[in-house]
Amino acid sequence: MGDHYPTVRLAAAQASPVFLDRERSTEKAVALIAEAAQQKAQLIAFGEAWLPGYPWWIYLGSPMYSAPFTQQLYANAVKIPSNTITQLCDAARENQIYVVMGLTELSGGSLYLAQITIAPSGELIGHRRKLKPTHAERTIWGEGDGSDLFVLPTDLGQVGSLNCWEHLQPLTRYAMNCFNEQIHIAAWPAFCLYTGSLYSFSGEASVAISRSYALETQTFVIHVGGLCDQATLDLLADDDEKRRLLRVGGGISQVIDPNGETIVGPLGDNEEGILIADCEMSKIPAAKMANDPAGHYARADVTQLLLNRGPRRPVVFKDPEFQSLAPDRLHGNIADDDDSAEVQQSN
């Protein structure tokens, strides 16, 4: 009797948050979680920085223009733990579903682009930060560290997540590959910025990136993004130039299988809804037989990756009495519990 490979039902939530409103966005997220569970989904994923919204203003104007919006983001960012996290955990437990949420996290005086994973038990089992915010994002979010690369063992399979252009980092992709990931959440913002003028920001380019990730890692990829709604556009675009740079819509969510094929989706450009995909996990070992870059297809005698998973903390308390003051975060487990591990990188 060999291993049984189940069919797993995954969901992508393509929706706009209530922009820069943490409480109302959380209420909307709870409703979407319940809706996905009613459709028998076992996991639902949200886009990058979904709670309480992606900071589009960083690409639209000067620091003086941006400052009021950044202040609102600070006021509506999510602390971990907090009542917001409790509401999301309660929704996961009440609906018996895994939830992967993208959010702006407030820790101390700094903001981070985070992803959290909640189990059907209502337990927060994973918390990571984007390792390197992209371009103008660095004016908003701080950096993560090596401990933010992990996968989570769940009863659905090995679940991992990354944000946006983290998927363009070859060494990050390879590190995720070595963890034997099976279900991957590729979280993106809406593709409503610089439409037609910068191809690398387009939905088509992003799907190509997620598709290549699925092929390279032999995972099911939930390619999920949000939407920019009319209220967000009206708030941010106060002149013709900004209205030229930002638009309503930008959705292209879909689910991609380990062979790089889209099996469900995409949802329409301005279509708000939940995308449901039934994923046959037997496709993973079939793909691995042909291509396993961190295993039989590797050439460790030629190229290797040195991976440091140790957390980087700005303050280390030497006095045990004060060590409890140091912030602590949840991270997933991998096979090697050492702070650093050498893994192979194929050429």
TrEMBL record:
CDD domains hit by this protein: nitrilases_CHs (cd07564)
Question: Mind listing the UniProt keywords for this protein, alphabetically?
Answer: Hydrolase
Q: Which GO terms describe its molecular function?
A: nitrilase activity; nitrile hydratase activity
Please state every residue range assigned to the domain named CN hydrolase.
Answer: 8-281
What PROSITE patterns does this protein's entry cite?
A: CN_HYDROLASE
Instruction: Give a GO biological-process term.
Output: detoxification of nitrogen compound
InterPro entries, per the entry: C-N_Hydrolase, C-N_Hydrolase_sf, Nitrilases_CHs
Gene3D superfamilies hit by this protein: Carbon-nitrogen hydrolase
Stated EC number for the protein is 3.5.5.1
> Where do the segments described as Disordered lie?
327-347
The cross-references to PANTHER family, in alphabetical order and at most eight, read: CN HYDROLASE DOMAIN-CONTAINING PROTEIN (PTHR46044:SF1), NITRILASE (PTHR46044)
The family this protein is said to belong to: Belongs to the carbon-nitrogen hydrolase superfamily. Nitrilase family.
UniProt protein name: Nitrilase
Q: Which organism is it from?
A: Gimesia aquarii
